Amino acid sequence: AQTVTQSQPEMSVQEAETVTLSCTYDTSENNYYLFWYKQPPSRQMILVIRQEAYKQQNATENRFSVNFQKAAKSFSLKISDSQLGDTAMYFCAFSYNQGGKLIFGQGTELSVKP
Amino acid sequence: ETGVTQTPRHLVMGMTNKKSLKCEQHLGHNAMYWYKQSAKKPLELMFVYNFKEQTENNSVPSRFSPECPNSSHLFLHLHTLQPEDSALYLCASSQDWQIPYEQYFGPGTRLTVT
What distances in angstroms separate CA A93 from CA A2, A11, B9, B112, one per listed residue? Predict the structure, then answer.
């Protein structure tokens, strides 16, 4: 069975600083996809970044980047130059080619402080 | 309207009531999903529909009854719910159910069962 674990229930960071959110997963699949989703207090979940397991290069999207360590089954999210609008719940999620099923971690609540 | 919309945004119902949640996507997607989000727990996939056909029922109790009349609309009919069913119910859509494309989420319906 696939599982996703986020070991940091809450984190905080000062505005303009860098923060890293951790995620580990367990799977026997070789080809899969990993995602970070953001859920701001308004509750609309949006995709932050996506990584295909067969790609060795880490995905980046503007201030957001991942550190994907396939052998260690680790998928952390780095947010650079944190902004107040980054305050949200962040979910790590896993999927493989079966029904588009997303398996989510428990989430990390990030607070960006001015 | 753009993206994925859900109505109502908030719902309070007694255990003997019957109510329905509505989801509509304006993205031309083929797959739609219902998730349950409870406090301190990962998102739980409930149902998956692809081209109006149910492709997954994640062992959901029969007091939750989904309906998908077309690829743009998804309903969740509720009857004789329990207090533990109180949660945020999220609808999502994606281009195709078999390939893990990005899922687009609605704002959710906050359900309280009294």
Answer: 10, 18, 25, 26
**Regions of chain A short of the pLDDT cut 70:** 97-100
Picking from B30, B34, B43 by the largest number of A CB atoms within 10 A of its own CB, the best residue to mutate is B43
Q: Tell me how far apart the alpha carbons of residues A84 and A93 are, in angstroms, rounded to a whole number.
A: 24
Residue B1 scores a pLDDT above 60: no
Length of chain A: 114
Q: Is A89 on the interface with B (CB under 8 A)?
A: no
CA distances (Å), B48 to each of B21, B101, B106, in order? 15, 14, 15
**Interface contact A46-B105, CB threshold 8 A:** yes
Contact partners, residue B110, CB within 8 Å, separation at least 6: B9, B10, B11, B88
Determine, for residues B102 and A50 on separate chains, whether the beta-carbon distance falls below 8 Å. yes
Contact A33 B100 (CB under 8 A): yes
Contact A106 B101 (CB under 8 A): no
Q: Mean pLDDT across chain B, nearest whole number?
A: 90
* B57-77 tens-digit pLDDT: 778 999 999 999 999 999 999
Name the percent of chain B lying above pLDDT 90: 69
Q: Which of A65-69, A79-83, B13-17, B49-53 has the lowest mean pLDDT?
A: B49-53
pLDDT at A100: 65
